Amino acid sequence: MADLFQSAKDAGFDQAEVYRVSSQSQPIRFEANRLKEATRRDTSGAALRVIKDGKLGLSATTDPAMETDLPARLEELISFGAEASFELPGPSNVPEVDIFDPAVESLAFDAMVETGQTLIDAVREGWPELNCSASVSRGVHSQNLVNTAGLDVGFRQTSYSVGFGGELVRGDDMLSVWEGFAASRMFTDTDWMVESLRRQLEWARNTASTPTGQVPVIFTPRGVSAVLLRPLLGGFNGKSVMTGSSPIGDRIGERVIDERISVFDDPTIDGAIGSRPVDDEGIPSRRMALIDHGVVSNFLYDLQTAGRMNATSTGAAGRGLSTLPGPRTSVLDVAPGETPYDDLFLGIKEGIMVERLLGAGQGNEMGGDFKANVSLGYKIENGKIVGRIKDTMISGNVYDALSKLEAVSDTAEWVYGSLRAPAIRCLGVEVAAAS
Fold first, then answer.
1. pLDDT at residue 13 above 70?
2. What pLDDT digit, counting tens, does each position of 359-413 carry?
């Protein structure tokens, strides 16, 4: 890294930055109730980003022998680069974030296999006809960044994930259930995953007719992630604000949804997948409200989009090795409300609960629209779940639905390790069913 950085400085660029990453991952996969595949992947590479005469250039390689060629390559290409709207950042105070666990780094292959097989065997005790699959993975990632403004920062991060589920086929009906979790630290409590799958299977044991029209809809934390957050957060990306495509780009300080909703981007949560002490441009991490009690509070900016908008980077830069940084979320944290979870069902004569979707993202997503088939959902009748719904589609606009909020649960759950969200009950969602 020092040699590449020195070569970049010697090449006479106005500003230069070296970004180096390496990762090791070991995923194992189960199919049809038994171990199917085990692999190990090791990758590493370096990227050189430079500014010269106001132009921005990037070149990267995964071949160490080619790193010395990067400055010369950029000399040839820099005149075609985009206009740079920023200065590289210097050193600053960096928060401590606990995202490395030696227990993950040293985790044995046999222990991973045992975890996957134990989960499958446990859920099949009560459902022997369930055809199960599972995945268990561990990883170690490191990244370092040094630039001509004096910044020299790096960190190591581990990741551990467990997911499993299965398919149940009865005649022409196929039910798919799934549960999983990921963290940057080791965890051994997986009993709740088994209980979650059993609950999904029990609730789906019977099928029920789908109530149609604008009926009360409860989105589980997974449903919140799949349906509501994606179209909502698209408008907070600095690029969409910069291009004028965000529907809320000019609404900072205005309330756009119910005041019971607050959403934070927080890469400082210990143990969460997506947490980090700095972003991919070296800007220190911090907890930041995107929506504070329904009010638009901040947008996600990297250095370039911030510079174009006469703003300051919010530490939201993410990047691939061979791509320029861009704004993205890290760990999303949706604040819980005040309603006990079981009370979400009270007073619902007919409604549905949405767990997972198929084909999310249809419609004018940037405008907040959503339209998707419900791959796993349940009918609520007189305040109780009475069965699984099939051939059901939901549609609406996230700003409308979250302005017709009825309740937010007082507890929040992790959804696969990078999102924490409560369950939400709202109106303003159109429910349709195949005849």
1. yes
2. 665 567 788 899 999 999 999 999 999 999 999 999 999 999 999 999 999 999 9
Total number of domains constituting the chain: 2
337-342 long-range CB contacts below 8 Å, 24 or more apart?
A: 337/260, 337/407, 337/408, 337/409, 337/410, 337/422, 338/260, 338/408, 338/410, 339/407, 339/408, 339/409, 339/410, 339/425, 340/409, 340/410, 341/409, 341/410, 341/411, 341/423
Burial, 315: exposed, middle or buried (Cβ in 10 Å; 0-12, 13-18, 19+)? Answer: buried
* Distance, CA of 419 to CA of 290 (rounded, Å): 14
Domain identity same for 101 and 183: yes
Residues 237 and 179 in one domain: no
Please state at what angle helix 70-77 crosses helix 2-10, rounded to 10 degrees: 40
Element (H, E) at 80: none
Q: Specify the pairing of strand 55-61 against strand 15-31.
A: unpaired
Closest CA to 57 of 23, 17, 24, 1: 17
> CB 73: neighbour CB atoms within 10 A?
15
Tokens coding 217: 């809809």
Which residue shows structure tokens 């459902």? Answer: 127
Res 421: pLDDT: 97
Range of the domain at 216: 207-435
Same domain, 189 and 257: no
Decide if 212 contacts 279 (C-beta within 8 A): no
The set of residues, in sequence order, having a beta carbon less than 8 Å from that of 40 and lying 6+ positions away, is 24, 25, 26
DSSP 79: G
Q: Last residue of some domain: 168, 185, 200?
A: 200
What contacts 284, CB < 8 A, 6 or more positions away?
Answer: 92, 93, 94, 95, 277, 278, 315
The SS3 call for residue 261 is coil
Nearest CA among 249, 263, 253 for reference residue 309: 249
In contact, 57 and 165? CB cutoff 8 Å: no
Contact call for residues 326 and 308 (beta carbons, < 8 A): no
CATH at 60: 3.30.2290.10
Asked if 274 and 310 count as a contact pair (C-beta separation under 8 A), the reply is: no
Same domain, 180 and 212: no
Looking at the structure, do residues 195 and 270 belong to the same domain, yes or no?
no
- pLDDT band of residue 172 (cuts 50, 70, 90) is confident
pTM: 0.94
Which of 179, 200, 221 terminates a domain? The answer is 200
Q: Are residues 256 and 179 in the same domain?
A: no
